[in-house]
Structures are given as C-alpha cells and as structure tokens.
Amino acid sequence: MYTLHYYPGNASMAPHMALEEIGEPFELSLVDRTKNAQKSPDYLRLNPNGLIPVLVDGELVLFESAAICLHLADRHPESRLAPPFGLPLRAHFYKWLIHLTNTVQAELITYFYPERLTDDAAAAAQVKAHAEARIGQMFDRIETALAAGGSYLLGDSFSVADLYLLMLARWTRGFVNPARNRAAVRRLLDRLVERPAVRRVFAKEGIEAPFF
User: Fold this and answer.
1) What is the pLDDT of residues 167-207, one digit of tens each?
2) Are residues 72 and 154 in the same domain?
3) Is 157 helix (H, G, I), strand (E, B) or coil?
4) How far is CA 27 from CA 16, 20, 24, 130, 133, in A?
5) Residue 14 falls within a domain, yes or no?
6) What is the pTM of this model?
7) Contact criterion met (CB below 8 Å) for 131 and 174
8) Domain's final residue, options 52, 79, 106
C-alpha cells in the first residue's frame, strides 16, 4: 500500500489528487509543518531535503512532487494520468509537467520565501514583487496555450499535469492578478474542481471554497 507523507495545501496536493484518481488503497501520514516535523530525524531519513511530500511504495521511497506524479502515472496506466509511451502527446505531457515544476513552481517558491535570497527586508519585498510579476507572465502564456488548444493542457486529454496546474494556480489566490483571472485557465480550474477525486482531496485536507 502507498503511504503519502503530506501537509494540507502543500506540494503534496498533486500526488494526493493522483492517488485519488487511481483509486488504489493508500494511507496519508501528516507531516505537521506547524511543528517543523519535516525537519525531524525520522522524516529526514525519508527526505534529507526536509521537504514535503514523500511517497513510500513498498521499498521505494520517493520525493519531489512531479517525480511522484510520474511514478504513479507509470504504475497505473489504466488510470490514464499520462498519455501512452512513445506518442507525441507523451512528449507534450513531459513538457508541461516539467515546465510547471521547474519554472512555475520554482518561481512560486521565490515568491513565498524571498528571505532565502536576501537578508534585507526591502530587498525581499522587491524579490517577492518581481516573482509575482514573472508568475503572472507564466500564467499568461499558459492562458494563450489553453485558449488555442482545447479543454486541458494536452488538448482533449486529461492528465496529471492538469492536477499539478490546479495545485500551483491555487497558490496564486492571494495575488493581485491570480491565475483564476484568465478565462481559459479559469475554465480548466472549474472543470478540475468538479472531479470527484479532487473533491475528496479537498475534503480530506480540510480545504474549503474558494478553492483557487
């Protein structure tokens, strides 16, 4: 049985949604960030980076949200969380998931933790403002792609990349111009939050509307 080490609303949300989509039994293990549990010796043995999430799959211990999503998609092809291997659509799936984790998520981390880049409070505020602007430009480009290409990031094909987008879009809900303000992005987010698996995740994690 899978065990997902998680914290509500954290980077564990996309893997949690993937597990719910798959429908196989799994356990949730809360890593209480309010008590700095992600830095505890027991947790650091699972993820020496001290970050959430971790997925335990038998003898396999896996960290990094996107890697967990890829692993789950590959282990359960019947769930259709990713296109089949060898197809051009699979390459586009890689493109979007890697873009979301390497580019959008990385910039969101800069936005939420600007003090990691400077000790000066005024400079930290500038870092945060510039990060928000860059994230807005990233969602503008996602908006353009969605407006031109169909219901999901892969056109008419749902994938775990869409769930990853939902997770990151939710993190922008406090922005001056959040992701939801873009029409095509909003249509996708509205579609995703109606999925039963997503609803179960919100219920289990205690996340209430507005979801994004």
Assistant:
1) 999 999 999 999 999 999 999 999 999 999 999 999 999 99
2) no
3) strand
4) 10, 11, 10, 39, 38
5) yes
6) 0.97
7) no
8) 79
